[in-house]
Amino acid sequence: MNCLKKQLLIISFALIVAIAIFLIFGSSIYINQIFFIINAFLGIFGLVSILISEALTPPNNAYTCCGNLATLGSSGLILISLLAIIIEAYAYTSVISLILAGNFFFLVLMLGGIWCYLNLRNHCHRNYYC
Q: Which of 14, 66, 85, 99 is geometrically suited to a Cys-Cys bond with 116, CB 3.0 to 4.6 A?
């Protein structure tokens, strides 16, 4: 499977998860602020781990194929979690549901990007070329 297909698969799966979360939790829900704080820390951890991995290993195309999805997912998760922390007390339920769906979109994008990145990294290490 080439790089574009992997990226589209990860993005489409993240969109399906986000739409499912929005449809499931579209009614009135209460989400504690701790959930968004934990997600912000998960985003920071994902971003730092990708950057350290890329800095300590020799260059190859694993980052350009999947690492950019993980970086985008981590950065988006941090930003949308901080947005949720700031506006949670003032927002309507529909806005919180959209933010929750966006949060899960970026979380799945980050985890899918990290999985794809590590899979390609392992493939490059096994075959000694990439």
A: 66
- Other CB atoms within a 10 A radius of the CB of residue 128 amount to 6
User: Measured between alpha carbons, how far is 108 from 11 in angstroms, rounded to an integer?
Assistant: 8
Tell me, rounded to whole angstroms, the distance of Cα 15 from its chain centroid: 11
Taking only the tens place, the pLDDT of each residue in 55-91 is 877 777 777 778 888 888 999 999 999 988 888 777 7
Q: What span, in angstroms and rounded, lies between the C-alpha atoms of 39 and 34?
A: 9
Q: Note whether 75 and 43 are within 8 A (CB).
A: yes
Instruction: Return the SS3 of 32.
Output: coil
Residue 29, SS3 per DSSP? coil
Task: Return the exposure string of 46-82: e unless at least 16 CB atoms fall within 10 Å of the residue's CB, then b.
Answer: bbeebeebbeeeeebebbebbbebbbbbbbbbbebbe
This prediction has a pTM of 0.84
pLDDT digits (tens, 9 = 90+) for 82-101: 988 888 777 777 788 888 88
Closest among 20, 23, 39 to 94, alpha carbons compared: 23
